[in-house]
């Protein structure tokens, strides 16, 4: 499925800027959020980078041309995996679970999906009828009915996790919690109607088939027999299915809770407990205690709330460099990034230069904190990366940067120029220092 | 670590009346202790620990400023703002949080908070920020400015949407960038050769755009960052 021609990401119009992050081709998964039916079309559209309506149109058009398309859709529905849930950092998960943040609820699609199934089915029947191939074929109506019924029941199976667990016990951000919590009662009802409808349709299909073999006169009897059979199966199987589902749900929850607890315990042991022990031993050195506390806070916060930027991006590298300087020099470094980009060799040098600038500021300026701001800006050709390192310390006159300030000359300016970038230093006695690093990537 | 500058607020007499909202008792006690040392400027008139108690305390005291935690039992800080503003639209909110999740910070701002500072802020800066918010100014920390630039940068290619609301003007972007670089309002004014008042106007208008801006764009931004 990966041999599909490369779609064009170019946008029409002369002013269209390059998107900050060029779209990455996603894995082929069914889309839950935009699904009308099973999310197959939306998933394919997402994968190819096409508009969803186009893929849908293709499907509908092909379905009219050849009924096989419906089979293809069904097969894709089964084969395409569900999207893997978006992981959230533990702190946000916890906050979501305890109702401490607002969660955005996607619209409830179940009604739309059911009606889509019904409408498509109805339309197909009508079309087939108009083409004169409908009622003539004895198998046509039973197959249509059965397909509709199976479709309804499948929709059900697709939704199952949402109903069998209450949201609070499921990891936040997984598909399940993104469904509305309040309408559980209403959803149960919808679920029942769906299953009932599906089974009725299948029963009807069986009855029709039987009747077509045994003659129309037998129809009421056959219909009743198959209805009774379906109902009987449902009644007998219901308690068993229910219990099975409950047990599955309970086991899943238990495993989830145990996993979370183990993770949490391991992390707390590795980080917070160690730091607390260190703090107790160094209780008479306030500066050391403050440094330890700050490092621990930064580490814990990163673990709880961090974006999942890969370790190889500019943002991650700058944050790491800032943390190192903070630890070494005991001066807080505040890193703010707008946009992000994968590190290249040049950008690694830029991060090194920025780190040197932070170290200088921490060592010489006497400022209480250092601000670092990085921006990745799309331009006509490639991205322009700018990093500003600023302190409000005592500053200096750049004209008399003597030989003892080798750091500035070679580590910052020289390094940037060697890699095709530039560094500008702005400083005056009493006004702090700002070093601006710039590079095209 | 805000960029708030001390500036006299002549028309106001007496300390600002403040309600403190946070679900951690220890933190409330700490902030109360800090602010009581400046009792001529700030007076704490109430506290809240979740959405319900906070709304009750705020409506009972009608303070000038509410210091609001972003994460709060019962629906988060945004919920408090919505409920209070339904009856008392004049109460100002300043978000105070350790949470660095961009989505939550932007969410509270969009709900109506006039600024965001982190809990590691110094006492003096916090008092300055309270005064700023009380006089209807916006308090943008470098971090918030970064979030805002990030949020709006995704929407610059959309010409079809209402331009006035969904884009930052060139000047507003410049101001935001300088604030993100750690400049105070005064330093921004000097850098751009404009008055502090003009800087404040730009910042307030960014805040307004953020609060009115097309929901779709910001949601898309959050989705792209896997925040929703």
TrEMBL record, chain B:
<dbReference type="InterPro" id="IPR016032">
    <property type="entry name" value="Sig_transdc_resp-reg_C-effctor"/>
</dbReference>
<dbReference type="Pfam" id="PF00196">
    <property type="entry name" value="GerE"/>
</dbReference>
<dbReference type="GO" id="GO:0006355">
    <property type="term" value="P:regulation of DNA-templated transcription"/>
</dbReference>
<keyword id="KW-0238">DNA-binding</keyword>
<dbReference type="InterPro" id="IPR039420">
    <property type="entry name" value="WalR-like"/>
</dbReference>
<dbReference type="InterPro" id="IPR001789">
    <property type="entry name" value="Sig_transdc_resp-reg_receiver"/>
</dbReference>
<feature type="domain" description="HTH luxR-type">
    <location>
        <begin position="161"/>
        <end position="226"/>
    </location>
</feature>
<dbReference type="GO" id="GO:0003677">
    <property type="term" value="F:DNA binding"/>
</dbReference>
<dbReference type="InterPro" id="IPR000792">
    <property type="entry name" value="Tscrpt_reg_LuxR_C"/>
</dbReference>
<dbReference type="InterPro" id="IPR058245">
    <property type="entry name" value="NreC/VraR/RcsB-like_REC"/>
</dbReference>
<dbReference type="Pfam" id="PF00072">
    <property type="entry name" value="Response_reg"/>
</dbReference>
<dbReference type="GO" id="GO:0000160">
    <property type="term" value="P:phosphorelay signal transduction system"/>
</dbReference>
<keyword id="KW-0597">Phosphoprotein</keyword>
<feature type="domain" description="Response regulatory">
    <location>
        <begin position="17"/>
        <end position="134"/>
    </location>
</feature>
<protein>
    <submittedName>
        <fullName>Response regulator transcription factor</fullName>
    </submittedName>
</protein>
<dbReference type="InterPro" id="IPR011006">
    <property type="entry name" value="CheY-like_superfamily"/>
</dbReference>
<feature type="modified residue" description="4-aspartylphosphate">
    <location>
        <position position="69"/>
    </location>
</feature>
